Amino acid sequence: MKRFIVFLFTFLSYSLLAVSQEKEYTSVIYPEDYTVQIDVAYTEVNDWVGYMDLYTKPNDTTPTPIVINIHGGGWRSGNKESQTSLSTFFKNGYAVANVAYRLVDVAPAPAAIEDVRCALIYIHKHAKSLNIDTSKIVLMGGSAGGHLALMAGLLGNNKQFDTNCPNTENIKVAAIIDKYGVTDLTPLAYWKSANNWLSLNNTDAAFVKSVSPINYVSYKSPPVFIAHGTADPIVPYMQSVILYKKLKANRVKTELLTLRKGKHGKFTKKQNILLSKSIWKFLNKLGI
Known about the structure:
Elements: H1 2-22, E1 35-45, E2 48-56, E3 64-70, H2 87-91, E4 95-99, H3 111-125, H4 127-130, E5 132-142, H5 144-155, E6 175-179, H6 192-198, H7 205-210, E7 224-229, H8 237-249, E8 254-259, H9 269-286
Parallel strand pairs: 3-4, 3-5, 5-6, 6-7, 7-8
Antiparallel strand pairs: 1-2, 2-4
């Protein structure tokens, strides 16, 4: 009996902890003229359903730009509910799509890429009903989310990861915002998160290249804004430098914001302000 009570106490403690952790995320605050749809199913694979949260302006007289926001977490953790800092996009009249994707415990690479591509295709296919301007789609993510934003955008009309979402749409994005994302997995195959995500393909050089954004850069690539801290202990700063140089070599519009002594997303208040201003300066130059 005593053991049962201890077990029950432990179980309840963990249950309450899980509930409290779920409530840690603050609600997204959005303007009154926005319409909100939570947990919109954008794809289904076996018994897994991919959901996104949509904040749109369907009653605007003109179609709106949209940012497709992708959370990070090393492909193994994180969720769309953690993404709540969206006020600047609302202030600038953007619609927002917060996307969930398959983490490694559900499916290894390239599942997450397939899902983000499906989310992008969903936005294209439902642009009219959502009042979205398909010429003003921005992909944004940090860390693993940055990697996925780069992959989804740089692929363009390359349909190799679109098996779950066959389409005839002309898929393109207006810009990619990559915050300290992985750009080349080849030199990072030893990294625990990458190794886990690549799974049995971690020693397959061709496969590793196929899920690395650096290999999809061309003169047709969309503009890319990059931000990275020089003291990042997880994703090497040089990953962004190499991407930036390749984009420049292909004459793609790009900018690299170097944050001195910046860690992996743990920037100072001053650096975060600079990051936000730099992103909007970049988008405004593009007319998005």
